[in-house]
């Protein structure tokens, strides 16, 4: 039901704003400590470009590498022992919790990303089983290869031929990863990376639904968005509409597949899950969770990495040299330097900069921090990638060599590098993501020289579930001379 009369809406809004102002001032702004004051007044922004940079500064200076922001009821840690404690040792005490699932519930339903307990365990088991299959891996590889050869390379090439052609690489990577994850999850091709750079209604609705869901977390109290949802006004009205669009699309794909029945020879995730259930809601939820998990993360990793590569031509030369001397195409896992570059890129620019859980019972972290029941507890991969205590005095430098021992890739414990999370709920798409990222990096660097249009000294991030460069990553591309000579 929607309230249409503008005067009634106005009265309700005025009453609500008085109510929430009272709640805000009585429950939150009572802390006058230096950190809370800086947070409330945003005075941190005088010295730091991004909130995550300020948190990094605070965490670096904390003897325990854990801090508590009183006004947010949020304990934030960059202590790897505490990260291991919450993600593995005491996993059951730190679920995603009701506040998180309420925020994303309308969009993600009961998909794997948004549930705890038995429902999560069941979906995880099923997804692990399917994703572990050889046929699924080769299907993923095929989808990625097709998207690179048929769309990414032709698109970038067409820009290299334009005089002063400026390409926003972040936008290109978002289109690329949306096509890939849709084909992989649904078997549907939105063709976002076509040379005409089309506007996809599905991609737009999906983006809007993720953005508006994330914005719920920023309201002073969950009551604000919950009441707006009941009244069906403002951002909640738009959220409802965008979710409806995504749902209509998902339901149509599921309906079509059901019609095909057992004759279907599709390799995508949806078809795999349909073998075990026909429940359209369950199928919709799990597939939407995968879309969210696998879309922006990959694009974000690529954007951060290409920004770093633009400042480190020596690393580009080394990637090209390894590919030239290394095994023939298709054996990505044997390119150890490339793997090190990708890990190093995400150390400095993790796509998910922080991730929160909610404490169930009073507890104490290994670093001595007391965690009260109901506290939001956040581990912070962005800050962790910048900790001298973990990576040494050169922690701010982009040095892929730190991941190599005698030329062979060596992986740090995931609790020091929780970019894909760690412990029992570690990312299920890690291998697929690595294949995607490495394939794109190699294909682009082998064919093109890429330079930033304007030097970005320190990236600024836009608010959202994943890290996004504000203003994108505008570049100029040119086809490499030695490649042109060969063709
Ligand atoms: C660079 C790319 C990626 C990064 C950095 C990344 C990172 C993460 C992180 C931090 C989580 C934990 C989120 C949470 O519990 O709140 C996660 C979970 C997950 N990821 Fe990824 N991810 C990436 C790509 C992918 C891709 C391509 C897929 C799908 C093919 C995927 C599927 C999933 C799923 C299904 C989960 C939920 C696991 C669970 O709750 O048990 N991810 N990922």
TrEMBL record:
UniProt keyword list: Heme, Iron, Membrane, Metal-binding, Oxidoreductase, Transmembrane, Transmembrane helix
Annotated residues for binding of heme: 427
InterPro entries noted in UniProt: Cyt_P450, Cyt_P450_E_grp-I, Cyt_P450_sf
Transmembrane segments: 7-26
GO molecular function, one term: iron ion binding
Cofactor: heme
Family: Belongs to the cytochrome P450 family.
Protein name according to UniProt: Cytochrome P450
